[in-house]
What we know:
This protein is an alpha/beta fold. The protein has a single domain (3-110, 127-144), classed as Rossmann fold, CATH 3.40.50. It contains five helices and five strands. Strands 2-1-3-4-5 form a five-stranded parallel sheet, sandwiched between helices. The longest helix has 16 residues, at 54-69. The chain is globular. The chain starts with a strand and ends with a helix. 36% of the residues are buried. Bound molecules: 1,3,4-trihydroxy-5-OXO-cyclohexanecarboxylic acid.
Amino acid sequence: MPTILILNGPNLNLLGTREPAVYGASTLADVEAGCTAHGQRLGLAVECFQSNHEGALIDRIQDAGRRFKAGELAGVVFNPGAFTHTSVALFDAISAVHPMPVIEVHISNVHAREAFRHHSYVSPAAAGIVVGFGTDGYRLAIEGLAQKIQAGA
Length: 153
Ligand code: DQA
């Protein structure tokens, strides 16, 4: 069964209590359980990792890239949180593991928010982007990733 990684960046460990009007009431544990269940329905094994630290996220992307090359991991769903708008290093990390598909997810519609959220360093390296569907976006991203995996992309 192909394995995918759900990767979450800074402050997403606070889902459920963090600005619920923006990010909803589900906790990260709820989201991860939903991803695992949805992955199973699609024939995918799901691993989850969250970190508030940019370097830990980069390490995990590099590790995912090694596993992708070895045929042990099929792709990544990634919500980079605020690092989306600041991190050339994440862009470089995702570019370095090309063609491993990385789907960028944002719970909120970042384009309807502050101007500093309108630019993403990650998007040019992403295989697809899901924005503004609340935490359902993770499920949609898994579906898109599953289609890309099936298509051999
Ligand atoms: C976010 C949007 C980012 O701008 C913000 O910094 C986050 C969460 C989202 O999921 O909507 O931490 O990535």
